[in-house]
Structure formats: structure tokens, C-alpha cells
Known about the structure:
Strands 3-2-1-4-5-6 form a 6-stranded parallel β-sheet, with helices on both faces. It folds into 3 domains: about 5-185, Rossmann fold, CATH 3.40.50.1000; about 185-345, UbiA prenyltransferase (Tetracycline Repressor, domain 2), CATH 1.10.357.140; about 360-380 and about 390-484, no CATH class. Strand 5, helix 9 and strand 6 form a beta-alpha-beta unit. It is of the alpha/beta class. Helices cover about 60% and strands about 5% of the residues. Helix 17 (about 350-375) packs parallel to helix 20.
Amino acid sequence: MTVAAHALSRPLVVDLDGTLIxxxxxxxSANQFxxxxxxxxxxxxxxxxxxxxxxxxxxxxxxxLDVSALPYNLxxxxxxxxxKQAGRHLVxxxxxxxxxxxxxxxxxxxxxxVLATEGDLNLKSTAKAQALVARFGxxxxxxxxxxxxxxxxxAQAHTAHVVDAPAPVLAKVQTQxxxxxxxxxxxxxxxxxxxxxxxxxxxxxxxxxxxxxxxAHQYAVVSRDGFALMxxxxxxxxxxxxxxxxxxxxxxxxxxxxxxxxxxxASGALSLAAxxxxxxxxxxxxxxxxxxxxxxxxxxxxxxxxVLTVAYSLSLKQLAVVDVLxxxxxxxxxxxAGAAAIEVAVSFxxxxxxxxxxxxxxxxxxxxxxxxxRDAGKTGALRxxxxxxxxxxxxxxxxxxxxxxxxxxxALYIQDGQAAHLYATPQLIWLACPVMLFWISRAxxxxxxxxxxxxxxxxxxxxxxxxxxGVFMLAVxxxxxxxx
Length: 484
């Protein structure tokens, strides 16, 4: 018998968590349970007191995972399919609960048998090794694993195949000998994936806290500059905290999205468990900084922002119209909080302008999602949203109207006594109105052509024309301030 034929005669046993998929089904189940039952967060802790196997059993019975969208390791999957086609006997052996393992096996239609956690037996490390030796004999199987608990299994296997293992694990396996395939997906370091999940580029949105400082012409007051800067830091930490929580809540929906499936949690580049540790830490740091250094009204505004954002993540984003109004309110809250930070009165005109302009931008975001769905021939409500592709024209009409009303608010402000108090020649601000009309119309035209792939705010930060419009607007306001 040739070496290749001898290898094919041995069962190929494959681990699931971290090997076949770039995630852990126990963590996935816990994540889904916390999302669906946030007020029963204590139950998994009680189940764990009865043992890890009991925890896995309870979670498997209480949640429904979409195994079709799990982040499978495609390189490993292709190799397994080739082995299966060559006649290899494939076994899925996992510490995940049998119910979930069977769902994965049924979806892939690849494995001849499944060994998994059930009853009081947690099929991991030594327990898995003993079960495989009892089933196939010592050295009677090849094993595909990825981490420290697999060392005991590799020690009993004929050949060790290693997937995305940490360097120390790989070194330890190599000392045992009989190393076969070594798969390396070249995933980014966890800290890099975490920074990406925190969406640091989105911190630019929090520059809105500086708007009241600029609008009230208080930028020459150093103490108020300091408060505005701290407001920016606190809001940014809070926003990143919410981004992490939002991605944890949305992970199953994101895996069905053409672009969002590449996000760290959805792709498996970052552990869901790391997210559940990090988002409360960021929020705690923000709360402490706010409590120690900021006015009470600012802290209250920050609290409202966090609660509204969480409500949006959990349910409001699924309600048509309510979702975009909430997004517009969240942007406007940044301005209100910025005013509270430097303790100046917030302008009625500024709030009105903010609500309409950000409502228009929020509707652009929804329009872009709907257009992608309709171009792809999809029907029915978008996953996780309250809109259907048939709503495209109505969303466009509402969004364009909101943007033009924002320009009307700016024009009416020019005639207000407050403008005459702040600007030497407020009539110069009229120059900003046609430029704003151009920018809003252009943004909607780009969305209509299917080229608005980012959040409109993020798009504007990358767009040279938008930067030009911004510089022109600032120049007009500066001239209106000094020219008489």
C-alpha cells in the first residue's frame, strides 16, 4: 500500500471551533442569548455552575444559530472536500454541543460521523483524545486542530494537521513529530482587528461637538477649547463602545451582507468574547472621564446618546423612518453635548439645520442599501431593516426634500437677529446656500448612480469635492464675521 493510500485509509478527524470555522460556537451561542435575552444575562452563569457541558446544552436549546453564514475557513474546507472526493472518511469531533455540530455537518454535507459534547461529557482535550482512541485506536486517525487543548489529541494521532495556531502551539506540535498540513490564514493581530472594530475613522463624526464652539465664536477661549477637546475624546470612546456592541448584536445579519461580512467579528478575525470585554471597558473609561472633568449637563447628554444608540442597535434600526430619525437625532445630540461642554446656549437654528441635514444623509445611507438590494433582484424587507427595495423612490424623495429644507433653514437664519449679532455682514452667508444645494444634490446623484458605498459622512471625509465645499463654507463664514 502506498503512503497516500495508507493515509486515505485513516479517518481524518476535524475540530470545529477555530479550525473549520474562525469562531467558537459556545461564544456564538452565548452572544446570541445575551442579544435575545439581555435581562437574563445571569442565566449562563447559573448554568455554568452545573458544568461546561450543561452550559453548552442550555445555550443550544435556547438559541438558534444560522450555521450557513458562519465564518468557515475556506482553505481548510476546500482541502477537506478534496480528501472526501478521494474517498477519505471524515469525522467532525468538537467540544461544541451535538445539536449545533449536527447542524454544521448537515449544512456542509461533508462528514461521515459527528462526535460532540452531549450529556455530562464535554468533548475537549483529554476527553476528546480518549474518545478518538477508543473509536479508532492510538495512532489510528489524523487530526486537524488549532490550539492548546488540541495538543492531547495530536499526541494520540498519526498525523497532526494544524490550522492558524499560535507560534508556541505550532512549535510544541512539531516537537511531537508527524506534522502534516499547516494552514495559515494570515489573520491580522487581535489588537489590529480590535482597532478596526472600534472604527477610529468614525471618530471624525464627533468633531460635531466643536460646532457650538465655532458657531458661538468662543474658539479663542482656551478653557472652552479644553472642554470641547475632552468632549470629543469622551464621545469617541463612547461611540467606539457602541460600535463594538452594535457589531456583536448584528453579527449574524452582517454575515449576510456583501461588505459587512468582512468586519472583524463577522469574519472571525476577532473573538466575540473580546468584544464583550472591550465595549464595557471603553464605556467605563468614558463615563469616568466625563464624571471627573465635564459639566453635569454634558454627562447627561452623553447618557442619552448611549441609551438611544443602544436602543437603535437593539430595535429602532428595524423600524422604517424611526431609524433615520434616530440617526439624525444622534448627530444632533453631539452638537447639544458640545454646547453643554462649553456651557453656551445651543442655537435653535443650528439644531433645526442639523436635524434636516443629517436626516437627508441618513436617508442616503438607506437609499444606497436599498439600491444594492434592488439591483441584485432581491424582494421583501431587507435583513434587519424595515425597508423594501420598492421603497427606493420614496426614500429618495424624502431625503432630497430634507436636504433642501436644511438649506432653507440656513437662508432663514441669515435674516435672524442672532446672525446680525454674530456676523458683521451676515448677507455674505447667502453665498453658502447655492454651494450647499450643490453638495446635497451631488451626494444624492452619486447615491443614485450606486457609487455611495460608505456612510455619507465617511464618504465626505474622503471626497475632495466635499473638502472643497467645506473650505469654501468656512471662508464665507470667516468673511461674514470680519467684513463690514
